[in-house]
């Protein structure tokens, strides 16, 4: 059988440039790696926010159900048990966050949702302090604010990493001042100045508003470097959940309408 004419010159020498190139089916195309990466980030952040929303929903449900039982409220918020209930979420999240990366994904999800329930139980008194209408309206304000700030953090090209140390110091200040206020109010029955109370709430709103944008960008960047393996989605959900809950609580202290 004679070699194909296109593969040889008239003198019988093989022409290396006559080899057929790769054949593409009509309409075939090469996937743009940048488009693939963008799609992966979108899907990952959607998953993170879906788990965050699930946690917020469970917290709201647990808070409402607990608030409807007088016996349960008396058991959880009187005497020494009241301190346990108030500080349980803080202890829970410190232990959870330190071990989260070592857990199996299914365990991490279960513990995250359990933490959301514990947080909800500790927040049950808000349904006794504020009207249902004000809680609903402030929740809506929080959702809109959170969405706008998260979108900014996700889309901005500005590097927000410089905010980190200042925001961390702000959170520490809020935690310390909150503990001092609780000890003064419940331990020593001292009255806290409404001006100080309102000023702390406003600072809290600013800090957790900034943290929402900062943490969203940070989670996105971690995904771009390491991918979404392991429990990164739950770690991101926990981080944004805490931003949302704290933003809601500080806004509620400013705009919430008290019961008569």
TrEMBL record:
<keyword id="KW-0472">Membrane</keyword>
<feature type="region of interest" description="Disordered">
    <location>
        <begin position="1"/>
        <end position="25"/>
    </location>
</feature>
<feature type="transmembrane region" description="Helical">
    <location>
        <begin position="166"/>
        <end position="186"/>
    </location>
</feature>
<feature type="transmembrane region" description="Helical">
    <location>
        <begin position="109"/>
        <end position="129"/>
    </location>
</feature>
<feature type="compositionally biased region" description="Basic and acidic residues">
    <location>
        <begin position="1"/>
        <end position="12"/>
    </location>
</feature>
<protein>
    <submittedName>
        <fullName>Membrane protein</fullName>
    </submittedName>
</protein>
<keyword id="KW-1133">Transmembrane helix</keyword>
<feature type="transmembrane region" description="Helical">
    <location>
        <begin position="77"/>
        <end position="97"/>
    </location>
</feature>
<dbReference type="GO" id="GO:0005886">
    <property type="term" value="C:plasma membrane"/>
</dbReference>
<dbReference type="InterPro" id="IPR006214">
    <property type="entry name" value="Bax_inhibitor_1-related"/>
</dbReference>
<keyword id="KW-0812">Transmembrane</keyword>
<feature type="transmembrane region" description="Helical">
    <location>
        <begin position="192"/>
        <end position="211"/>
    </location>
</feature>
<feature type="transmembrane region" description="Helical">
    <location>
        <begin position="232"/>
        <end position="255"/>
    </location>
</feature>
<dbReference type="Pfam" id="PF01027">
    <property type="entry name" value="Bax1-I"/>
</dbReference>
<feature type="transmembrane region" description="Helical">
    <location>
        <begin position="48"/>
        <end position="65"/>
    </location>
</feature>
<feature type="transmembrane region" description="Helical">
    <location>
        <begin position="135"/>
        <end position="154"/>
    </location>
</feature>
<comment type="similarity">
    <text>Belongs to the BI1 family.</text>
</comment>
């Amino acid at each position: 059988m004679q070699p194909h004419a296109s593969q040889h010159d008239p003198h019988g020498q093989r022409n290396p440039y006559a080899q057929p190139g790769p054949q593409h089916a009509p309409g075939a195309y090469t996937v743009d790696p940048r488009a693939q990466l963008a799609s992966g980030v979108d899907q990952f952040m959607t998953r993170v926010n879906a788990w965050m929303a699930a946690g917020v929903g469970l917290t709201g449900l647990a808070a409402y159900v607990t608030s409807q039982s007088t016996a349960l409220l008396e058991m959880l918020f009187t005497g020494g048990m009241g301190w346990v209930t108030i500080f349980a979420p803080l202890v829970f999240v410190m232990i959870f966050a330190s071990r989260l990366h070592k857990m199996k994904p299914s365990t991490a999800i279960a513990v995250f949702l359990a933490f959301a329930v514990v947080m909800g139980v500790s927040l049950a008194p808000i349904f006794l302090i504020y009207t249902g209408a004000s809680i609903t309206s402030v929740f809506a304000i929080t959702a809109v604010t959170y969405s706008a700030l998260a979108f900014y953090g996700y889309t901005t090209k500005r590097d927000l990493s410089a905010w980190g140390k200042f925001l961390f110091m702000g959170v520490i200040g809020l935690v310390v001042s909150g503990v001092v206020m609780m000890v003064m109010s419940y331990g020593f029955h001292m009255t806290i100045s409404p001006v100080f109370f309102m000023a702390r709430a406003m600072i809290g709103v600013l800090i957790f508003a900034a943290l929402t944008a900062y943490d969203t960008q940070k989670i996105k960047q971690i995904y771009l470097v390491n991918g979404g393996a392991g429990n990164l989605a739950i770690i991101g959900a926990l981080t944004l959940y805490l931003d949302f809950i704290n933003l809601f609580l500080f806004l509620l202290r400013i705009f919430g309408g008290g019961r008569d």
